[in-house]
Amino acid sequence: xxxxEIPVDLILQKIDEERHAATSKLKKGFGVLTGELDTDISTxxxxxxxxxxxxxLKHYIPEKIRCRTPLVIIYALINRETMxxxxxGRSVVELLLKEGIEVYMIDWGYPTRKDQYQTIDDHxxxxxxxxxxxxxxxKEVDKVNIxxxxxxxxxxxxxxxxxPHRVRxxxxxxxxxxxxxxxxxxNVWMKQTDAQVLGDxxxxxxxxxxxxxxxxxNPARLMIDKYVGFLQNIDDKNYIENFIRxxxxxxxxxxxxxATFKQFIVDFYKKNLLIQSRLEIGxxxxxLKKITVPILNFYGQFDHLVPPEACxxxxxxxxxxxxxxxxxxxxxxGIYVSSKCQKEFVPKIAHWLSQRDN
Length: 358
Known about the structure:
- By secondary structure, this protein is an alpha/beta fold.
- It has helices at residues 8-34, 92-98, 120-139, 151-162, 185-191, 195-202, 207-216, 219-232, 237-250, 258-270, 314-317, 334-337, 339-355; strands at residues 47-52, 55-60, 71-74, 85-87, 90-91, 103-107, 144-149, 167-173, 280-281, 284-285, 295-300, 323-328.
- An 8-stranded mixed sheet has the order 1-2-6-3-7-8-11-12, with helices on both faces. Strands 4-5 form a two-stranded antiparallel ribbon.
C-alpha cells in the first residue's frame, strides 16, 4: 500500500498567506487605533431643566411635537441612561424625537457616601415624584407618560401604583416583577446574597463589583468572545468606534446606595413582594390592582439578566384592561441598541402612545 503524501508545500504556502493577511490587518488596525476616532456617546442635544442633589433631568425637544403628553424615561440605578443615546443611528432618544415625542430622561448621577441611606422610597416618592410634579407644572399638564427600564421599570411600577393620578400611560421594558423564577443565574445568585454584609462593607454597592458580577454571568461571551471579535475586526473603523462606545457605557458604572441595594435584594429577590402586592414603600402598600392605566410591557426572549419568566406575569396581576406584552427576540441590551429591534421597538411605542394621547 502506497503511503499518502502530505502536501507540505501547500500547507506552508497557506500559512504564509495567512501570516501576510494577519500582518496587513494588524498594520491597518494600528492605523485605525492610533488615528482619529469618533467614540462620543450621548450626543443628542438636551437641556438640564431640573436638578436635586446628584439627580438631574434631561429634556429633549423634537422638531415637531406630535404627542401632547411628554414621556419621562426612568433608567435603572445600575449603569447609565446614556445607553439610550449610544450613537447617532443607534439611539432610542433620537428615534423617539423623530416620532415627535417630547422626552425627559432622569440622570441618577453618581452616589457618594452621603447617599448610602437613600431607600427606594427616597427615589420613588422623592426624586421621581418631584420630577413629575416639575414637568406637569412646566408643561401645564396633569399627567405624563412613563417609560421604565429594568430597575427603573420597577420604580415606574411603584410610582404608578402610588401616584396613579399623575400617569397617563406606562411602558415597561426588560422590567423584572416576578423574582420567584430560577431562570437566569442572576436570580439564583441574588437569592444567596447577604445584602446586609455587602451594604455594610462598602457603604454604597460599588458599580465595578456589580459589573464584574454581570460579566461572570456569561464569561465566555462577555469576557472572551467580544475581544476575539475586536481583534478580528481591528481594521474596521466603524466596528472599533461602536465597540469603544459600548465599552465606555459598560464601565461607566455608578455605585448603588446601600439602603436601596439591601432593600431590593431582600424585598424583591428573596421575598418576591412586588408581584404579590405585598411590597410597602413609604408606609403604603404597592397594590398592583391600583394600576389601571394602559400598559405596554416589553421583554427579551434571550435576556440572561431578566428572563421572560421574570416579566410575563406582570400584566395578569394589574388592574388595567388595556395591556399588551411584547417579547422581542433579543437580549437585555439588544432591545435598545440592535438596529433590527429599534425598527420595531420605538415605532411601536410611538404609535401606541399616540393612540392613547387623550
